[in-house]
Amino acid sequence: MEVQEPFDLALTVRSHGWYDLAPWRWDEQGAVLSRPIALASGRVAVAEVTRAARGLAFRAFARGRLGAAEARETRDALATCLALDEDLAPFRARAEALERERSAGRADLPDLRWALERGAGRLLRSPTVFEDAVKTLCTTNCSWALTRVMVERLCGSLGGEGPQGARAFPSAEAMAGRSEAFYREAIRAGYRAPYLLALARDVAAGALDLEGLRRSALPTAEILRRLRAVRGFGPYAAEHLLRLLGRHDHLALDSWTRAKLARLRGTRRVPSDRTVRRWFAPYGRWAGLAMWLEVTADWHGDRPSWP
Fold first, then answer.
1. How far is the C-alpha of 210 from the C-alpha of 226, rounded, in Å?
2. Angle between helices 129-137 and 144-158 (to 10 degrees)
3. Closest to 124 in 3D by CA, of 251, 21, 44, 259
4. DSSP string covering 181-225, please?
């Protein structure tokens, strides 16, 4: 697979926490990213990608031989996950211009030289917006350990089985067929149980077209309005999902990002949301991406620092 240089696979994989959730697998030492993917044929293939001399090396396998169309589907899904179709040239141009201002003495701008040098900005996402939406719900108001448990149980209970027992992320139809009690008791979803069930049933019935949002020409404000109308999606969840759709106009602020910004900026108190928006306003429609790159910069050094 071809990539726009500069491109750092490990940096893209660890751009946020999704790689640590089922059904992803990241081999840090071998620099191999893999996951099972449910195909349109009903089969489950396992896809792997690693860095090559030119671009990325891709491999896929399933129970029985993969057809050419299935192999293309698997490769295209992985390209979507790595956001290879996202054009970051406008962001880079804006960040480079603002970096010159920062170097000239503008102290309110973040130092994004590392991101420009390494090609940061692509965020790992799921093959489907539905999966991203479910996982976003599973991150709200809980520890990361509980998020991992919920997602692992969803895959283990409802995901299609592939080679070597690998379980794909479940489809909306598979999730829609279960009860609210199942999500409370078996998945340990707590208050999220009715939201997960409603999301799955709306998507399975065609009442909610999440997949159409990925390449929608609608303005960000309209997409945000539609996401906020989904049960369980408050400001953070909706703006986080926007980020995974390649829309970075909003900041998706939560308690962790606010506290991290306060520490990085040396403020005595956690800054107000209005103040944070003012800090990143110069980046325009890339404000959320610039903020995310500032708060996660220490994840990508020689000794990664994780939240």
1. 10
2. 130
3. 21
4. HHHHHTS--GGGHHHHHHHHHHHHTTS---GGGTT--S-HHHHHH
Contact status, residue 38 vs residue 168, Cβ threshold 8 Å: yes
- Which of the four CATH numbers 2.40.10, 3.10.110, 3.40.1000, 3.40.50 does domain 9-81 have? 3.10.110
* Nearest residue to 297 (alpha-carbon basis) of 30, 148, 136, 117: 117
How do the domains of the chain map onto residue ranges?
A: 9-81, 87-121+249-307, 129-244
Please state, in angstroms and rounded to a whole number, the distance separating the CA atoms of residues 111 and 290: 10
Looking at domain 129-244, its CATH superfamily turns out to be Hypothetical protein; domain 2 (1.10.340.30)
Q: Give the whole-angstrom CA distance, residue 112 versus residue 116.
A: 6
From first to last of its 307 residues, the chain has per-residue pLDDT tens of 888 889 999 999 999 999 999 999 999 999 999 999 999 999 999 999 999 988 999 999 999 999 999 999 999 999 999 999 999 999 999 999 999 999 999 989 999 999 999 999 999 999 999 999 999 999 999 999 999 999 999 999 999 999 989 999 999 999 999 999 999 999 999 999 999 999 999 999 999 999 999 999 999 999 999 999 999 999 999 999 999 999 999 999 999 999 999 999 999 999 999 999 999 999 999 999 999 999 999 999 766 666 5
